[in-house]
Amino acid sequence: MNQDNTQAVKVALVTGAARRIGAAIATALHQANYKVVIHCHHSLIEAQRLAQDLNQRCPNSAYVLQKDLCAPQAANELINAVLAWAGRLDLLVNNASVFKRTNFAVFNENDWDSLFATNVKAPFLLSLAAYPFLALQEGVIINVTDIHGDKPLKHYAAYCQSKAAFVMQTKALAREFAPKVRVNAVAPGAILWPEKDNLLAEEAQQQIIAQTPMKRHGEPIFIAKAVLALAENSFITGQILCVDGGRSI
């Protein structure tokens, strides 16, 4: 990271940035000369390790904020903490998400509320809280949605509906926030295989690859590069960029 002292360094807040895609986004933004705020909820150790690595490359260029995005006043508190550390905000990346298998035949209100609170309400409130400060910099919001916000995934009906709402949120806020703040989204396909309760068998993984025109699995860096491209192009807003090896077609 090569910061020019004659020009203010841009600041990015990335939610869910301790691991996986979020960490790749934070790292790529740092390499592109952003100061990065690494938000985490449960993965504090990983977030601190990432920040330490980035700060070794450039002192005081990465900062960790741990917060439950669904807690009362979380959005305002998070934005205020970013401003207290960096004094400005240029880019908000709403990456934090819950991915959960649900039984469509037996409605579980807790699952429904959890998915929509994290995947829809939290980024909406965070975007609203960030808007006045992003507007000062003609900044950008980039949401990480999912190709399954448009193309449903079996056994994940509630999740897919939450991501569909997130896609509409992207477009709606792009209209509301223009012309001062642009709002776009990146929709990943098969980038990292799911973990824990969502694990896929090898056969299922190979089937997904077979259905992907590029005939291979993606990598988190592809999402990070898409975020950078949308952040840097000042005439794109309200768009959903699929990064999925062609699977959505």
Features:
14% strand; 7 helices; Rossmann fold; alpha/beta
Give an overview of the whole structure.
With 249 residues, this protein is an alpha/beta fold. The chain is 44% helix and 14% strand. The chain contains 7 helices and 7 strands, in the order E-H-E-H-E-H-E-H-E-H-E-H-H-E. It has a 7-stranded parallel beta sheet, sandwiched between helices.
Describe the structure concisely.
The chain has 249 residues and is α/β, with parallel strands linked by helices. Helix content is 44%, strand content 14%.
- Determine the fraction of residues in helical runs and give it as a percent range: 40-55%
CATH homologous superfamily designation: NAD(P)-binding Rossmann-like Domain
What is the total domain count?
A: 1
Strand/helix succession: EHEHEHEHEHEHHE
Count of distinct strands: 7
Distance between the termini: 37 Å
Instruction: Please state roughly what percent of the residues sit in beta strands, choosing from under 5%, 5-15%, 15-25%, 25-35%, 35-45% or over 45%.
Output: 5-15%
Alpha-beta content class? alpha/beta
Main sheet characteristics? 7 strands, parallel
CATH level 3 topology = Rossmann fold
Strand order of the largest sheet: 3-2-1-4-5-6-7
Mean pLDDT: 91
Instruction: Write down the CATH class.
Output: Alpha Beta
Shape label: globular
Number of helices: 7
Indicate the multimeric state: single chain
> Radius of gyration, rounded?
18 Å
CATH architecture: 3-Layer(aba) Sandwich
Q: Spans with pLDDT under 50 lasting ≥5 residues?
A: none
